[in-house]
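LOG
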Amino acid sequence: MSAYEAIKKNILSNKYPFLDYQNLLNEHIKEKDKLNFDFENYIIVGIGGSSQGSKAVSHILSQKNIYYFDHLNAKKVDKVLNSINHIDTGFIFISKSGSTSEVLTLYDYISEFFGDELDKTKNFLAITENNDAPLYRFATHSGFHCIEHNPNIGGRFSIFTHTSMIPISLFFNNYLDMFKGFESAISDFLNKDSVSDDMSPVDIAFKKHNLILSGKKIDIILLYGDELYEIGNWMKQLYAESLGKNGFGYLPVISQMTQDQHSVLQLYLDGPNDKFYEFYSANYQESNNFIDLTLANHKQAMLKTLENESLPIVRISDYFVDNEQSIGYQLGYFFISSILETLLLAHLGGVDPFGQDAVEKQKKYLK
């Protein structure tokens, strides 16, 4: 059975809960309708897939009142906590297992920072599995709302679960358009229809697989437009954790342009021939701003340079970051297409895209 037929069969037989469009939409609407969590500011506490999906969307929309504690930088945490009105701030703690050490540390720190000045029953929200882990126990003991995380969906595939869609729904008015893009991406894949992007996930997966077999093991993700930086980080986790097994996979490198033209371009063009390239650019539509025009000009120059040097280009994609009427659909389509591409590549490479056993090696040394 071909990779495409295998993935299609699994979708039709509901083997992938993270691709079950109707169920995920219904679950979201049900949870959103009963959620009373409206604040001026939001602080999202989560690591990796627990926060990266909503962070990518927030970054594209240039949200100013959304803060992500996806790190353990005490100075940055203190700076934010000292700058906000905590009464007008909603704190969302996200951990699938409920025992992620960084999230628990930040929970304790924020709780102690504000003490009795903060009403957890109003200002705290948890998204975690219903289990006996610490985060669920904290929510139960303190009496703040807890949304149940689907135990069958891992972090990097959780973009359309509560971990991402609940936070996104709090700052993006047109977020349901993402579900429309989700539905279209699945439909196009199953029916082999034309796609809204330049290439289908099937085409891209086979192209990448052939490049991997030819010795290309580094994926340079060229980002033109700072709004796309966190999209790059979302892809980095998806590709690396899903495919980096048993000697298979490739290293995704996030390259911010035009800055990297002045630091690593020499290596790209004249270093080891072990790389392939993807272009992602912010399309400012009809902008006549000289800065935007210069950025677009640099992208075209880079594209022509790689073509002239016969260096492999896998994808060229534009995102309408300044148009909330279209960006939601685009993002929904992009997220699902990237997941489909990853499932296909995993099948072609003979690896399980869902495990991450090697990650556990580091955790055993944590004290």
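LOG (cont.) second protein
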Amino acid sequence: MGNSLKKKHLHGAWLASALLWGSAHSAWALDLSGLKANEVAVYVQNMDTGRTVLEHRADAAMNPASTMKLLTAWYSLNRLSPDYRIRTYWHSKAKIENGVLQGDLVWRGSGDPTLDHNALQEMMQQLQAAGVKHIQGQLVLDKSLWQGVPTADAFHDDSDAAFTVDPDTHMLDYHVVWLQFTNQEQERWKMFPPLAGINVDDSQLRWNTQSSCGQLKNRVQSQWLGSTILLKGSINAACTDQTMYSKGVVGDEFVYRAFTGLWQNMGGTGADGFRVSTTPIAAGRILAKHQSEPVAKVVETMNKYSNNVIARSLVLLADTGNHIQAEQALQQLQQQMNADGVNDGQLVLENGSGLSRRERVSARMMGNLLNKAYHSPYREAFWNSLPIAGVDGTLRKRFKPLTGRLYLKTGTLDNVHALAGYGVDDAGQTVSIVVIVNGPDTPQTLTQMDNLVTKIMAMQH
């Protein structure tokens, strides 16, 4: 897709208004590879000179899809710093006697969006090293950190998708379970994390003799029926060790079932039941703790793989303190953009992830943000978070002829496609590139956009 610049007209569609290239006294007519001129916005700026080298509808308000995560990345790096780590801990005022915690175990929710079952197991090892084998009380979820989360409305068709999971003070494995097919009689399916009281029923799976499996998620469908995950479809020996995710119980119930399942697997007992506190619980003795990777790495995971849960969580985490409200956190993000001189008046925020039908930016504003980040102390962390063309993340299979020259955040929603980031020319100079398309999807839209970016890069001589 977009492998070379070809000097040709596609459907005779040249820009009606010139796309400015070079100085104000020269203009190049650049065809848009079939994209409609009134559906695309373009902004390109030289990072070394500050000169705007190319623009088209740069001030139009556009839905940016997941390129909105670049604002959240910048906000997080500024407010928290690249080295900041999110800390989760368990504490209790109860005594420990003969291996028994004689009271409740409190889990202080940190909002860490990257917390997973491996981290939980490490914390349980700490708990056992502190002498706890049996929890006589309940698991108490201290959820006082946040009192509201940003919304992601109008995505009801995707309500079962992992990317629509809401942020949570007690995020764990994105509140989805991963099922691994083992093809073993005693345990045909492994569940990560193991959810206490949840069983897998694969009696309606058909066995076939095909030599390949493909993606397991395309062969097997899951349906939650109370405490049972019912699997339907077909499977074969080639599917062994492959995984798929399934979303059923979420929120506090998911967290409690995962905690209990892991605790029991490690030989622990107790914690019969859980309760939630929305007011802070005075800290007792800290029995286990975990810290996330540095925020720079969290931001990298967010941008490389366009993770909505991380983005929506970082918006809240960057507004430090207790009882954070979504509206308050979003106001802080907007104030950051205002203070940095980035916001040109077109910014509309809903949750900071791009998982929105309402969020808006202009191509020029996105370009201003890229320029601000490039000339900041956080340039390395910001740059390193971007997918590399032909190498990793959401650009792994795109722009392979431009590997090492394009570093772009992608964005995709129904009727929305976007790219924003940096390109490096043959002379080693850097330009920011923003291309946003808002218009009815066609089978060619993505290819056309990639061709346009390829042409922009070909003009960098």
